[in-house]
Each structure stands twice: as C-alpha cells, then as structure tokens.
Amino acid sequence: MEYWKSLVSERIESEEDFGVVFIDLNAFKAVNDELGHDEGNALLAEFGTFLKAKFTRATDATAHQGLMSSEGDTGRLGGDEFGILIDLSKRLPDDSETPEEKMHTSVARLQQDISIFLKGLDSSITDLNFGASIGAAVWKPGMTCEELIQKADQAMNVRKQEDKADRLTPEEAARLMANLPLLEKAGIRIPDAIKRHASAE
C-alpha cells in the first residue's frame, strides 16, 4: 500500500487530471473455504492479469496502468483488493468531457469487461456469488493522497453493500426484516442499502 500511495502522490504533484479505482472481490473467502487456497490464489492471479491486460491496451486511450502489489504481477493492494490509477488528462481537439465524465466512462467499461470475465469462470466459482465491487474517485486540486484514497475506498464499500443487497433472496430479505428490530437492539448495524432492498421485497 505504501508503494501505491507513493504513485498517487507522484500523480498529485504532476497536477494532471487522474483518478483512483478500487476493486474488492466479493465472496472471495467462500472461494477459499469451498475450493481451497490454491484455487483462490489462482483466481487472484487470473483477475490481476485480466486487469493489467485491460489497462495496457493501446486502444484504451483514457487508461494508465497503476496496478501495484508486492509480487508485481497480480495488481493486488492486499488481500482481495485491487487498485488502478486512471489517467484523465488526455484530451482530443474536440474533447469536451470533464474528468468526472471520463472516469464514469472508464468505470462503466471496466464493469462490462469484468462481467465478461466472470461469465468465463467455472460454475463452481460463480455459484458462490463471486463478483467484484468497484469504487472510484477523481482527484481535485488541494486533495491529499489520503483524502483521495479514502474517497475511493468509501465509494467501493458503498457499492459492496449495494451488491450484497442485490444478492439477497426473497426468503433472506423477509428473514432480515423480521429480525431487524432485534438486530438493531443488539447493536448490529445493517447497511441502509440492504435494508432498502429487503423492505422492497
């Protein structure tokens, strides 16, 4: 993570438009528990290779490789989290997009590619609800490295809770709503995204 922070700090010093994307793999613990750590490690390596290939394509004019890990080959920030630096400074003569719009386009493209990646996995993995939650933040002048990373991390965690809510079955939603008063009385906080989804079922 320290090496990652140094890269972000370097980009801030350049004062060029860029952003940070964090990706958290959902249900990765289930993959380790059900299929074994060798399968989990292989999956991490495969996902990291997929990300590196996407963000080093000559055709992807908005992306800049920023995948960091101690091994240097998987793009992991640690555990089941990945990070990407997105270069938002490139402009064409007729380019009127803001950095935020460019980031939105890059994240949408990334989500589509991840969906394709997931469809190519064995059913023994996808049946465990394996997936990925993405959070992004665009650097603004005056924003520190820590503030930018925190903003991207918060966005990723919000998305992770929304993704978790989307995976609730009607039975799980009904059980959650029935037990909600007891859970809250016991001090167990249920994310708003999950409560909204459960109450809508």
Brief summary:
By secondary structure, this protein is an alpha+beta fold.
Notes on the protein architecture:
The chain is built from eight helices and four strands, in the order αβααββααβααα. It is of the alpha+beta class and 201 residues long. It folds into two domains: 2-159, Reverse transcriptase/Diguanylate cyclase domain (Alpha-Beta Plaits, 2-Layer Sandwich), CATH 3.30.70.270; 168-201, no CATH class. A four-stranded antiparallel beta sheet has the order 2-3-1-4, with helices on both faces. Helix 6 (145-166) runs parallel beside helix 8. The longest helix is centred in the last third of the chain and has 22 residues, at 145-166.
How would the blueprint of this fold be written?
Elements: H1 2-14, E1 18-26, H2 28-35, H3 37-54, E2 76-78, E3 81-87, H4 99-119, H5 123-126, E4 131-138, H6 145-166, H7 170-185, H8 192-200
Antiparallel strand pairs: 1-3, 1-4, 2-3
Helix pairs in contact: 2-3, 6-8, 7-8
Largest sheet: 4 strands, antiparallel
N-to-C span: 40 Å
Roughly how much helix do the residues carry, as a percent range? 55-70%
Report the average pLDDT across residues: 76
Q: How many separate domains? A: 2
Task: Write the element-wise H/E pattern from the N-terminal end onward.
Answer: HEHHEEHHEHHH
Number of helices: 8
Q: What name is given to the CATH topology of the largest domain?
A: Alpha-Beta Plaits
CATH architecture of the largest domain: 2-Layer Sandwich
Task: Classify the beta-strand content into a percent band.
Answer: 5-15%
The outline comes out as: globular
CATH class of the largest domain, please? Alpha Beta
Low-confidence stretches: 57-75
Which structural class should the secondary elements be placed in?
alpha+beta
Q: Please tell me how large the radius of gyration is.
A: 19 Å
